[in-house]
Amino acid sequence: MPAVRLSDVAQDAGVSLATASRVLNGSTRVPGKAVAEKVEASALKLGYVPNAQAQALARSRSGLIGLVVHDIVDPYFATIAREVQQQVFASQSQVLFTQTDREIDTEIRALRSLIAQQVDALVLVGSHRYGNDSDAALTALLEGFARNGGRVVGMGQSLGVGRTIVPDNAAAAHELATALIVGGHRRFAVVQGIAGIPSAGDRTGGFIAALTEAGIEPELSIEVGLTRDGGHVLAQQIQEHLAAAPDDPVGESLPLCVFAPADVMALGALGELRRLGIDVPGQVAVAGFGGVPDADDANPTLTTIALPLHEMARQAVDWVLEQPDEGSAIGPEGSEGGAAHEAADTSPEGSAEETPSEVHVRGDVLLRESTALAASD
After folding, report:
1. Which of 374, 288, 355 lies closest to 75 in space, CA to CA?
2. Whole-prediction pTM value?
3. Torsion angle, CA of 107/344/324/56, rounded to 10 degrees?
4. d(CA 71, CA 303)
5. Which of 9, 94, 185, 220 satisfies CB 3.0 to 4.6 Å to 189 for a cystine?
6. CATH topology (fold) of 64-167+309-361
7. Which CATH class is domain 169-307+364-371?
8. Cα–Cα distance between 251 and 44 in angstroms, integer?
9. CATH architecture label of 6-59
10. 189-238: per-residue pLDDT in tens?
């Protein structure tokens, strides 16, 4: 059977082709309710399926949202990506997803591809400044997309373009370290020196600042990758350290408390410490950062900073879908945006590039089994 055309629907409903298009392709110029219902009924009866390209032209939007994360295996990114997907799908839009493995060249290629697919917005989750010459290329790409009506939303490190939800990493890590000290911990190991990941540096910096204020020096400083495998390496280096210096240097039979600046690393360390036969929290205590759901199910349950991941994702989608005359729930007033369908050196009529803005969020300290100290006699 030949494919059902829009003209067939228009003829069956007794309306013009333009009217049928406005109803079925999502134009803002929708006719009256009775006419719209007649067109929709004809489309259902004939089995007509709207053309996506025609819908994009009618709406001046593609209904596509580009989502960029570092590593979908990491439960931090997986939690946010799932919430973004659910919120976007509920709005009748779709997500085009890519991961970058924290490689800036991969990220730039991915962004170019998403923009070529005429996405309406880009949502970038994680640190997206790598401290090298390619940062300028990334900035230029995002600025050009925004100039042409696309929306840019970041979650993590400030992008300098569009809107960004920024966790107060240093302050939260400082609060976590303080809580551990108040709880009785005096021996600490920290993960630092993760190149190109400012958020991790901020977290470790805030943690060490609290130790310094309490007159405590980290017993051990380790450089490993911000991944589950990095957590395995972290546990192995902890084992080597304990074997080389088994005595408690503070003379209080306290465990060594390890701070990993990401839950995925802390969870990897927990698993490897168990495999190595090291008691957690008896010999080694472990704290993470992020508040991923997996931390609740770990054995022992993981002490962490719980960021409002679901709320952050919902706010990002609210910004993406915000109409030109709507205000933001927690951020500045919205400005007009739309699909970036024009050439890089021209701005579509009526578009307006947003002034870069940030909204800061705080996490909650969750002290759990992984840092519990044995009760003293």
Report:
1. 288
2. 0.75
3. -80
4. 22
5. 220
6. Rossmann fold (3.40.50)
7. alpha beta
8. 78
9. Orthogonal Bundle (1.10)
10. 999 867 668 889 899 999 999 999 999 999 999 999 889 999 999 999 99
